[in-house]
Amino acid sequence: MSYSAQALRRQTLTASASVSTTARALHKRRVELRTPAWLAVAGALGLSVMGVAAIATTEPALATRQIAFLCVSLLAAAVVTLPHFRMLQRLSVPLMLAVLALLVFVMIPFVPEAIVRPRNGARRWISLGVTDFQPSELAKIAYIIALASYLRYRKNYRRFLGLLLPLALTFVPMALVLVEPDLGTALLFLPTLFAMLVAAGAKLRHLALIVVIGLASAPALYPILQTHQRNRIDALYYQIIGDDRHVQGIGLQGDKAMMLAGAGGLTGVGRAKSADLLHHNRLPEEQNDMVFAVVCCRWGALGALLQWGLHLAITAGGLLAAARTRDPFGRLVVVGAVAALFAQMAINTGMTLGLMPITGLTLPFVSAGGSSLLTAWLMIGVVLNVGMRPSQYLAPEPFDWTSRDAE
Amino acid sequence: MRDDRPDSSFFHRRLLLLGGLMGAMVLMLGAQLGRLTIAEGDARLDRAERALKRSTILPTHRGRILDRRGRVLAHDDPGYGVAVRYGVITGTWLDETARRRAASEAGRGAWAEMDEAQRREAAMRHRPELEAMRGRLYRALCEHGGIDEVELARRLALIMERVERTAEHVRERQREAVVARYGEEEAARVYRPEPIAEERAAHPVLERVDDDVAFSMRALELELPGMFEVTDARRRVNPWLQCTVRVDRRSLPSGLAAEAPLDVVLAGVADHVVGSMRRSYAEDVERRPLREDGPDRDLAGYRDGDLVGASGVECAYEAHLRGARGLVRRRVDSGETERVPAAPGGDLRVTLDVALQARVQAVLSPQVGLAVVQPFHQNALLPVGWPLRCAAVVLEIESGEVLALVSTPTRAEARVAEEAGTAPAWVHDAWINRPAEAIYPPGSIIKPLVLAAAVTEGALDLDQTIECTGHYFPDEPDHLRCWIYRPHYDFMTHGPLHAEDALARSCNIFFYTLGDRLGLARLTDWLRRFGLGAAPGLGLAVDMSGAPTGAARAGESGGFLMGSEEIARLGSGPQRSAAISLGIGQGPAVTWTAVQAANAYAALARGGVWRPATLVDSSASSIEGAAPSAPVDLALDRRGVRAALEGLRRAVRDGGTGHHFMNDAGAREEIFDVEGVTLWGKTGTAQAPPLRGADTNADGEIDADDEAIMGLDHAWFVGLVGPADTSLPMFAIAVIVEYAGSGGRVAGPVANQIVHALQDEGYLPVPAESPARTESPPPHEPAPPTTSPPAPEEPAG
Question: What is the mean pLDDT of chain B?
Fold first, then answer.
């Protein structure tokens, strides 16, 4: 090797090392506190406060407990924002495997009740002593991370057959959650997948075809649903056609929720009266799945609009953060998080307002309960993490597909 | 310098699409929110607020039913009962209350954390106190109810047995419904028996406790909440359900006459008129539910288990009698209390004189014998002693008010006979109020109406005679014969007759002739004016279908009268034949009730002025449907009316068919022996349809093996009566004895006893020189000796 060649090689190595160092430095150092993700944080905080107040309407003691859960959740969210989100991507596979293992674990019949305590026939909770932990809540985050990790550098989902593997990946955790049974949480996986595929650039006609096929084949699933699930669909059907013979039976919860939500009128009936109405009408799950009825009853339509506004703030903050980052994983994980939160909100408020069948699904940030609140705030933590690290790549814009790509 | 603005790349457009989709979903949710909170907000708030209201329903009184002299025929008897919750009896209340108390004590969070064993243990700590409460209740029941523990246990066991039997039946139906919905296999997995209403309800353990006991138990109820209820146990009582009437038997036909009076024990006086009560059906509640709330609040509405009038005026005037419950409603949030006092039901006065009704019922009682086949009846087809079903009406001519409306057997008598298994043919169809609902061919009692119509229509010159030749058509001696043209009377004929005598002797040929001359259309038209073919409007009619059509009504019948369309369809030959038969009240063109017969005769007595017969006091104008109808002048020729009345007067005098009969010993017996009165009357012997419901093969059962008995006649007597010193009749009487044979020899003596009853009750004068009848105290004053205290009917709601 000649001197010049050696010098050239040294210079090249030095230059290369310098470029690499600069890129890494760019990754590590660029934490920007000015990010639209704060909008999402503000929305989530507003909703959490609203949730505590809603819970305090009838159960002040439970509200205090909820404040404690909120503090823990905020701390957890803050912790999630500390490491670079790429670490989540690296952990995606082990995290997903761990969650799948937990989902299988809760269904093992001989696990002592001290560890897995069935409630109302469902095996969803692992006892942690001070509180219970619901693996299906964690599964939502693990799924979003795993799917984002899978989709980030691929383009096969631009073909119809390429959508089958993401769908198959979705059905594994979804099926495990479904047999707990937790139909509500299981149903969240599909809109999350849909949103992430849309963002990743899957062809809309392919997605539309899948949606049409799914909707067309949905009635075939009815016979294999459990009896109480069928009852809830039946109750919605009877409510829509105006058949009130079942309002004291299978339609009781839905009817009471609609009644109490409507009773709030435009501005609500206030704390004292809403507490009386809720107490004496005995709305089932008033602090959990049906907390939106409490919001409507206490603060009326304006309160409900405020709540939706805060949810839209989360959505907007998340989508803007996704728009600013150039990291494909970061983009998808944020879209998945806000989509999951929005879908959960839409299903929960939809069932309270009588547009969807009743499913055991909490209202994010608002419903009482540690697992639900923690999961929601972890998602906000992920959104903020990505939002604070726009990751300026020396690379083409990810997911900037043209009509010729992957044809 | 990095540009902070997001690039308008493909990815960003997709984000915009997602944002748009989410916004659209929020808009959709917002639309539904607007519907619920703004469009329907008030209604939903109103519904939600119902849970804040604690209501106590106050009982009401059902109105009384009174007779024309103010005597009570039916009234509510207030009272209380004590009913124990089924869960307390079975012990499930102890378990549930113990768990509830334990959960409350532990707090919601802690209870949720407990496993089943911990919960059970926590609940067990509350059991002793609850068991002590139950023991206290049972001791109070024994003490206040005057029963011992064994009797209490027996009553509780009976309740459990009854509820378990019902629950078993209901659950089987529930399971069948689940199987029908999900299939056998899935149903076996998902079916969970639900508690039935009886398992959630309180069941009466003490009935008819007095006010002091009710007060004590109410005080205990505050200390033992949710374990029992002090219930309103008012009942509907009919004081005339049983009474005794003394009958003077000296004026009865010779086979029945006796010097000693007979005390006749009656059951169910006027029970067809007063009617009965029943528990509400689902249809009642559906038709008019009790509504405590809202603009359509209706406290007169029905709940399950309410008592509802089932028949008679109890049914026809249900809305008037029922009343409306009261309501005390307290809001749990504000303490505000609303009181709506109970509105008692209105009293209802009927035109009946219940004492006269009882006397007429006594006359028709099998114990007296007039309504039982007797040798002097000369009934060749029914055995002596066969009880006969009867209907009798007494009507005040001036007002049209019905003083007595008797149907035998009464419903109470039929119940007793059915339980004893006696006289099955007698109790057949006993639920029918015969004088108002049962329809019969008129037979000869229609003749005075035909006569008056014929004179008015110019079909008969009263100065001329019509000759009775024994049979109507000269060359057909076996067809359309006079009743006298029979071998028994050596084929006699009446010869030439004037109208009055023709009526007095009931000559068929004379009235065949009038029927033929008038023709079917004109004759039926006149009968329609006399009220035939339309319900008389007594006030008993009940709409059975919701449609105000005659066919859908029950309670009173209008009989049958051939309409003009049917007449037109018949053709001239059949029309003529029907008209000739109708002249003597036979044939297919007409049937009527005893009330219609009495009312038609009353119209004649008024000189041709018809007015509806009434059973409900028309002065009570607030009662719907009871407003009096205006009298209608039928525009009859006065000479025809006079001739008809004269014929009726002669009919009960010597030579008339209503004057005497030859008894089984061949002796002549006068039908009427009442002094101090003037009588007008007409006998009728109407061909009856085959008698079914008789145990002809004497196997103790009425079944398909029994043959219908053919060739029997119904015995009619319809008459008018007034004081001897006036030529104006005051009362119309109609009697029909079913399948009994001759009107003169069977129904005539009954009418004679009804005239005696009118005298006994002071409606007709008793001449001072007449032989004193056996002292016959009115059934109501002093209180009639009853065989047992007036038995209550149903408890009122």
Answer: 86
